[in-house]
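Dock protoporphyrin IX containing FE; give full complex structure.
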Amino acid sequence: MKRKKTSLTRLNWLVDIVLLFAITPLYFISETGRNPHQILGVVFGIGILYHIALHWRWVVAITKRLFKRQPRQTRINYAVNWLMLLSLTGSIATGLPIATWFVDKGDPSFRGAVQRAYYDMLGLHSTFSYVFLGLVCIHLWLHRKWIIKTSQRYLPSLNLDFAKNFTK
Ligand code: HEM
């Protein structure tokens, strides 16, 4: 049983590291180019679904106890997680209609109302994406103890002494 829990923790940690590395280039579209950005965006969305599946028991347990007494920290985590899911869904839902797969900005028909709709959608996409980024920072901060403890466990050669100040 303990062994099963350890391997699940390791899997959670590995998935989180991959997601953390994947999120960064999403905000550097001029460096990555639009097509890799789009592909990464979709893959990232699938990765997040996997991350949620790994924490599904927590989600179900907290949802069932939503109207009962619970620690404030748990309620904050729960709310932040929902806001993250909503903003990421918004980001992907507004990213898809402006994707190069569906819109050719060089096409003569790309003007007037079509062009305005495109830039309105881009504005929404950008807003959702930056709200999501802000929430990711809050999420990381709220889980900093687990992140530092688990990283130290699986990467013992990594010196994380400086980070211990953030866990007090
Ligand atoms: C998964 C989360 C995603 C994040 C965090 C994200 C983030 C961003 C950011 C920060 C920009 C720059 C916005 C600006 O210049 O104002 C951008 C642009 C763009 N995104 Fe995303 N994006 C995501 C997913 C997607 C997806 C799934 C697609 C499409 C399949 C997509 C398509 C685009 C396109 C086409 C642009 C450039 C539009 C242009 O320059 O005309 N994004 N995205």
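Observed: The chain has a mean pLDDT of 93.
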